[in-house]
Amino acid sequence: MDNEVKISVRNLVEFILRSGDLDSTFVGSSRAVDGTRIHQKIQKNKGDNYLAEVSLKHTIEYGDMFITVEGRADGIIKEENSVIIDEIKSTTRDLDKIDEGYNPLHFAQAKCYAYIYAKKNSMENIGVQLTYCQVDTGKIKYILKEYSLKELEDFFYSLIGKYFIWADYTRRWTEKRDKSIKGLPFPFENYRQGQRELAVGVYRTIFQSKNIFIQAPTGIGKTISTIFPGIKAMGEGLISKIFYLTAKTITSSVAMETFNKMEDKGIQFKVVTLTAKEKICFNEKTTCNAEQCQYAKGHFDRVNKVIMEILKKENLINRTVIEKYAKEYRVCPFELSLDLTLWADCVICDYNYVFDPRVYLKRFFDGGKEDFLFLIDESHNLVDRGRNMFSAELKKEDFLRGKKLTKDSSPKLYKVLNKLNSYMLDMSKRCNEQGFYMQKEEPLEIYSLLRSFVKEGEDWLKGNEKGEGYEEILQLYFNILAFLRISEFYNESYVTYVQKDIKETKIKLFCLDPSKLLREGINRGKSAIFFSATLTPIGYFKDILGGEEDDYSMRFPSPFPVENRALMIAGNISTRYKNRGNSIYKIVEYIKAFIYGKKGNYLVFFPSYKYMNMVLKAFEQECKDVKIIVQNSSMKEEEREEFLNNFNENGEETLVAFSVLGGIFSEGIDLKGERLSGAVIVGVGLPQICFERDIIMNYFNEKNNKGYEYAYMYPGMNKVLQAAGRVIRSEKDRGAILLIDDRFVSRSYVNLFPKEWMNNIIVRKSEDVENVLDQFWRA
C-alpha cells in the first residue's frame, strides 16, 4: 500500500538525530572486526537469561500512514522482576571519558528497542543498558538507566513525528511522479529507425526481470530508448530506482540532458549525478574534519535542512546544483550528493559505485537484491574497468619508504615493513630475464604480513596524525586494505604476478576474467541493460561481462543512409610492428589522397604514439599547406578542449588531427556536420603485446580456445569501430572512412564488420582513393 513505510531502528535514529561535525579522523578497519569479535564474545559469555540478537518490530499509525520500525537488539536480559535491553558498543576511547552523553545516538537506538519490547509485552518500566567495550584492553563499562513506558513512548513518537515529514514527502512525491509518468509521451515527435523496437526490448526485459545486451549504432538514440522504458516501468511499480552507469563524465552529461528533455514534456523525476569526491571537494586536499574544513564543521547540524530544501526546489540535481547548495549551507558537497541519492529516482554515476568492492554504495547494495534497474552505457568499457576493479597491486618501494619513515617512531611497524620489503626482494629474484614471475596460487605468505601491518599501522596512524610521513603511511594502509579486500575474491580466474624493472618491483593480484564478479554486481538489481554502439561480437561481451545463456541480446543496423558514408579499405599495407618502417610513405600517400579530396577536418588514428610520430614526421614534409594538430599522451582538460575547438565548420584551411586509437579522441566526442569530414584508421587497434595480455590470452585459450580473440583481436576491433563512429553523427552527416591494414580484408575481421560496412570499397593505391572520393563528394 502507498501509505505503508518501513525503516530500521538504526536508520531512523541516525538520520533524525544526527548532529555535529563530519569527521574522517582515522579509526582503522581492523577495529570494526575486533569490535564484532568482542561483541560476539560478550553475548556468548552472558548467562542463560541473556537473549542475543533479538528481532523486534512495531507498526504504528501516524497521520494517515502506517510506519513500521524494525531491528535487532544486541541483547535482552530477563531478570526475575525486570527486563533490560542491552546495546553493545566497542570503542577505542578511554572508558573513563565515556558517560551517558558520550554519543546520544547510542541511547536513542536502545530506547527504541526498549519501547518496542515494553509496548509488546505491556510493561510499565524497562531497563536500558549501554555496554561499552574498549577494544585495546578488553575492559567493559556498563551504563544502566530505567525508563517508564510513557517516557519511551514520548521519545519514540517524537522521532516518528520528525520522520513523518520525510515519509510523507516521499509518498506525495511518488504519487506526483507516477502520475506524470502515466501521461508522459515519447519526447520526440517520431521514433527513429529501430528506436521503438529498442525501447520495447528494454521494457520487456525489465518486465521479465531479465538482462539484455544491445548493440545499437550512433543515431538510434540509445540514451532515450533505454531511459524512457525504464521510467515507464517505474511508473508501473516494476522498479524502485534507476542507476545510469557510465565510464566518462561526458556520457553522464548526455544522460542528464535526456532527462531535461523529458522534464520539458512534463515529467516529475528526481535525478542525482554523483561526482568523484576528489573532483567535487571545495578544498585542495580532501581532508574531512572540522579543524581543516569549514564544510565538515557542523555538517550534520545543517545537512537535513539543505536536503529538504533541494528536494522542494530541484529535480535535476547535477554537480552545479549540489555545489551551489553545499556552499550556501556550508556542508560537504560529496556527502550531500550521497544523501540525496536516497531520494533520487535515478542516480547517474560511474560503474564503480555498483561494481567495485572497495567503493560500491553500501547504502543500496548491502541488503541483498532490490528492484533496481541498471542502465550500463558504453558497456564495452566495462571489460577493462572490471578487470581493474577486481585487481590490486602493491609496490616494494612503498614498503622501503615506510621503513625509513617509521624506523624511530615504531619498532613494531618498522619490523613488519622490513619483512614486507624482504618478501618483495625474494619474489623479485624469481623474475625471469624479462622481469616477470607468475603463479596461479595465492600469495598466502604476504597476506599474514599485510594483516600485521594493518594492526601495527593503525596504532601508528592513531598517534602520529601530525607526524612526518603520515599521509604516505595512510595511503599505504589504504592500498594494503584494498589488496586484502581483493584477495577475498581470489579464484581460478586470478593469477599473482611480480614485475621487476629498474624503477620498481610490484606484486599484483590480477583478475583475468571479471565475469563472475560482475555478475554478482548485476544480481544486486532486478534488470541490467548493457548497451553500446560497439558490442561486437556480442557473444564475447555477453560472456566476459557476466551474462548468462538466457540473457537477451539485440543488434541494430545504423539508421543513417548508407550512401552518406564512403568506406574504403587499403588492404595492401601491413602495419604490423616489424613492417612499420616500410609502411610510412605509403600511409602518407593514402592520407594525402584522402584529405585533398575536399577541404575539411580529418582525424587520423594510429595504434601507438611512436608509430604516429613516425608517420607525422614524413607527413609534415609532404603537406605544408594544411593545419596539423597532434594528440599527446598527457593532455589536460583545457588542452583537450583546445584540441577539439580546432574542428570548426567551414574553416579556412584543411585540418588534419593525428590521434591514437583507444585514446580520448577516438570515442565519446561528437563532431557533427562539417566539423568532421572523415577519419583514417591505421592498423587493427591491437593492444600492445605485453605480459598481462599474454596471460589473458593463455587463460582463455584453456577456457574456450579463443585466447587471441579475447585478449587482442576483439578489444582492438572495438577501438576501430569506436574511432570510425566519430564520422557519421546524424542523418544529415556525410563522411569518409579509410581503413589501412591488410588484416581488414581477411575473413576473421570482415566477420566483425557491422552490416552497414559490407558495401566497402577495396583500394590498392592512392589514386583509387582520389577517384572514390571525387565521386562521393560530388554526389
Outline the secondary-structure elements.
Elements: E1 4-8, H1 9-17, H2 29-45, E2 50-62, E3 65-78, E4 83-91, H3 104-120, E5 125-134, E6 140-148, H4 149-182, H5 195-207, E7 211-215, H6 222-235, E8 241-246, H7 249-264, E9 271-273, H8 277-280, H9 299-313, E10 316-317, H10 319-329, H11 333-340, E11 346-350, H12 352-355, H13 362-365, E12 372-377, H14 382-389, E13 392-395, H15 396-406, H16 411-428, E14 436-439, H17 444-463, H18 470-487, E15 494-500, E16 505-511, H19 515-522, E17 527-532, H20 538-544, E18 552-555, E19 565-570, H21 580-595, E20 601-606, H22 609-622, E21 627-630, H23 637-645, E22 655-660, E23 678-682, H24 691-704, H25 707-724, E24 735-740, H26 747-750, E25 761-763, H27 766-778
Parallel strand pairs: 1-3, 4-5, 7-17, 7-18, 8-11, 8-12, 9-10, 9-11, 12-17, 19-24, 19-25, 20-22, 20-23, 21-22, 23-24
Antiparallel strand pairs: 2-3, 3-4, 5-6, 13-16, 14-15, 15-16
Helix pairs in contact: 1-3, 1-4, 3-4, 4-6, 5-6, 10-11, 15-16, 16-17, 17-18, 21-22, 21-27, 24-25
